Amino acid sequence: MTFLMASAVGRWQYRFGPFVLSPSRRTLARDGRDVPLIPRYLDLLLLLVERRQEAVHRQLIFDTVWNDVIVSDSALTQAVRILRRTLGDDPREPRFIRTVSRHGYQFVFPDVSEELDGGAPPAVAAAAPARDEVLVVDAIEEALGRLLAPETGGEDDEAARREAAESLHVAGTDAALARLDRRPGHERARAWLRDARWDVPGAGRVPLLGSPGAARTLAFLFRLRLRRAWRLAEERSLAASLGGGVAGFLCGLSGGAVLWALPGSRMTSTVPIVLGLLGMAVGATGAAGVGAGMSAAEALVRSWRRGSLALFGALGGGFIGAAAHLVGQWTLQGLFGRDLSPVGGGFEGLVIGGAVGLGYALATPRPEGGMATPRGRDRLLAALASGVAGAIAAALLAATGSHLGAMSLDFMAKSFPGSQLSFDPLARLLGEATPGPWTRIAISAGEGMAFGSGLAWGLTRRPR
Hints:
The chain is α+β, with helices and mostly antiparallel strands. It is built from 16 helices and 8 strands.
């Protein structure tokens, strides 16, 4: 995590009530005994304590604590709930963390002292008591009871179950699985444990194959991630569509302007604008399909991120490509009696979507899975890698005779006598009398570059 607390540099620690919060050692202690906290929740507590003179906005919290991944609002609500439970706080009469309506949260404990962090507190160094096994067993049983209880639905129920699963990993994954065994509802509980292990550093493995009720556990896990995927991926895929649309508009407008300016062109000055709008429609539609597939992959599959991004990106691109080709075929055949068969469709969308998904995955490694949100140079790198992958795929398709965006337009223009659109001037610039292999490869590679880069740039936009 890139977040670095200023107090960690000065080796200060905070003391409030019975608690001592050490940024440098990244620990929270109560009466000299360490209190286990998930790292992100510890970061949230540090942020609130350091900015205790102000109400911290939710967006600042997301940008600071979850700066490398996109999560829903319920993740923050759950984190605050766990912090309150850890501190023994009451949200109705808060002593530590106050909810600021429609804004965020504020740390309100009045007596916070800052002191030099001299290492482990004396009580811990002198006694270092072992964890009370009876208390651990009670905590495991309480958390298992929450996981095994019937579902009531809603975000509150989901947040409570995720909190229970994470606390079981903190207490000990193997011990939790041993006590879970084949109790009624164990499949659903095992699915929650499997999903939550990515968010708890040091969590043990939760094997599915060979475990009791593996098929039902997989079904519960898929349903759990599908619900979350629908919530998280909706805005993300729309952002990808916007990025692809902007890239398509710029690509069509600039390409049309070049064609209009070349010697021998029959185009009027309005054609570049038309090509830009057409490119925007094609880019936005294609990016919506590929982006939706990639967003679903990041939310649904966490163990094999690279392969799933390529596969789901390919499926999204293939679906949109096939649907667009079918609609275009019906339109031209029904209205003009023209055959659209040579124009690219499902196969081309499948190849380009898979290539862009793979390029994006290689540029945004996340061992723990989840939705990547790179910034600055890393975001540019992700867009560049996705664009290069799209360009390579598009060039290979063009080299094997496939018609992509511009070449599909060239094919249709030649089917209608008197059309102003012609790519012959550009072909002559590249040493060919009419669009041949090199013209098709050059234009298609440029389209693939623009599409992949625009999609990735939109996909990595952090929602506000």
